[in-house]
Amino acid sequence: MNRSGLYTALALVLVVGLLFGIYPELDLQLAGLFFDASNKTFPLKFNTLAMIARDGAMWIAWGLALPSIVALVVKLARPDKPLLVPGRTVMFLLVTLVLSAGILTNLTFKSHWGRPRPIVVTQFDGPQQFVPWWDPRGSCGRNCSFFSGEAATAFWTYAPAALTPPAWRPLAFTAATLFGVVTSGLRMAFGGHFFTDVAIAGLVTFIVIWLAFAWIYRWPSTRLSDARIDAALTRFAWPLYRLRQKWRGRDVGSR
After folding, report:
1. How far is CA 182 from the centre of its chain?
2. Could you state, in order of their start, the residue ranges of all structural domains in the chain?
3. Residues 188, 101: Cα–Cα separation, whole Å
4. Is the pTM of this model over 0.90?
5. Which residues of the chain have pLDDT under 70?
């Protein structure tokens, strides 16, 4: 997670944003590669193996986050015990996942950016008008196209890749990139998203991960320790834990 990676991501956001903002028809042309005009559909969305691959991709991503989720739940239930996973790992993985695949995607853009999905625009035999990525005034009411939550989740695998040993990190980042690209390609092939939806999702996710990594691990003024995070979670969960123990006739004291 060096500076060159951040600069590259920011440059790609600028290039993709400007290119597809000036020439929005490029989004339609790329989506059209997956459209069967004779049958007026995106045929891959009916392919069983493709659907299994799509669902499996999300299971893989969430599987990488599962140890940290379990560790957090156990810690909140038993704050007297140490975290099962290092505190910085738990914080880094879950914060980046929630931000990139949850808050920024579903609560911010997809809920308020009315861009219709390819499968429902008039160019692909749908009822709604196409709008470029930068225009939030489309006719989609909810769960809209910009930007892709599944692509953001797939590209979130950059986060666990960043925590691999240095010798394995280039391979891990390559695998995360391929995983994100293939998952994003499937979303496009199903008619669920335009290229800009998945590209910007991946780039924004990478930037979120880069900043979180720097905040938690690198910058001296904000750098955290596993022990500090463990202690903060203990303090947070202790009042409820103490109350539960009192109901059982035990007083574990305050923290």
Report:
1. 15
2. 3-239
3. 18
4. yes
5. none
